[in-house]
């Protein structure tokens, strides 16, 4: 399609999402695979509200995804810079599992999620955006959440700011503990 004259009326509605350009440009991607470049190593050093950390454990933490597929999409990461799930300790594996289960309970309690996609992309060829640091996705789902916007419009709409989602989930998690 050719658009002659920006702002001229046509039959198209536009949903501007300039925040997505950071993801498209890879602005938050590490320059290399070292822990010094890794955002999942840097995030725990920030205050929770700045790093979007929802919950901290002894060996792992839950953090909101900067580029969520759905409201409440978070990741559970070990503090230790490790890439492969087969390399985590039994203790790390247990805490990752516990935080994942707790995340599902908390998200369900505040949002009424009807289901979840839970999983890890192991390695760049498997779709891991940051392959050097293990992270498990917890993505809440609702009936009809894949409407025309992502399917036809190739656009995700999120009705809540990440800082508001973080506060909501962190508060609910504290009450559930």
Radius of gyration: 18 Å
Strand order of the largest sheet: 1-2-3-5-4
Largest sheet: 5 strands, antiparallel
Structural class: alpha+beta
Please outline the helices and strands.
Layout: H1 20-25, H2 39-42, H3 48-51, E1 53-56, E2 60-64, E3 74-78, H4 90-111, E4 115-119, E5 136-141, H5 148-151, H6 162-176
Helix pairs in contact: 4-6
Give short descriptive properties of this protein.
6 helices, globular
Short characterization:
The chain has 177 residues and is an alpha+beta fold. The mean pLDDT is 85.
What do these coordinates show?
With 177 residues, the chain is an alpha+beta fold. The chain has six helices and five strands, in the order H-H-H-E-E-E-H-E-E-H-H. Strands 1-2-3-5-4 form a five-stranded antiparallel sheet. A hairpin with a 3-residue loop joins strand 1 and strand 2. The longest helix is centred in the middle third of the chain and has 22 residues, at 90-111. It is globular, with a radius of gyration of 18 Å. The model has no long low-confidence stretch (mean pLDDT 85).
């Amino acid at each position: 399609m050719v658009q002659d004259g920006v702002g001229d009326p046509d039959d198209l509605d536009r949903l501007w999402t300039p925040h997505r350009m950071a993801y498209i440009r890879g602005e938050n991607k590490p320059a290399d695979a070292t822990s010094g470049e890794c955002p999942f190593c840097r995030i725990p050093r920030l205050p929770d509200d700045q790093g979007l950390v929802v919950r901290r454990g002894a060996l792992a933490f839950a953090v909101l995804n900067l580029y969520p597929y759905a409201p409440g999409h978070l990741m559970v990461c070990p503090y230790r810079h490790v890439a492969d799930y087969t390399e985590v300790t039994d203790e790390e594996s247990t805490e990752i599992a516990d935080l994942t289960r707790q995340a599902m309970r908390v998200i369900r309690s505040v949002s009424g999620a009807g289901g979840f996609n839970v999983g890890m992309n192991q390695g760049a060829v498997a779709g891991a955006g940051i392959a050097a640091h293990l992270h498990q996705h917890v993505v809440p789902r609702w009936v009809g959440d894949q409407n025309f916007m992502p399917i036809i419009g190739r656009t995700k709409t999120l009705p809540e700011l990440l800082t508001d989602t973080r506060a909501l989930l962190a508060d609910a998690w504290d009450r559930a503990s």
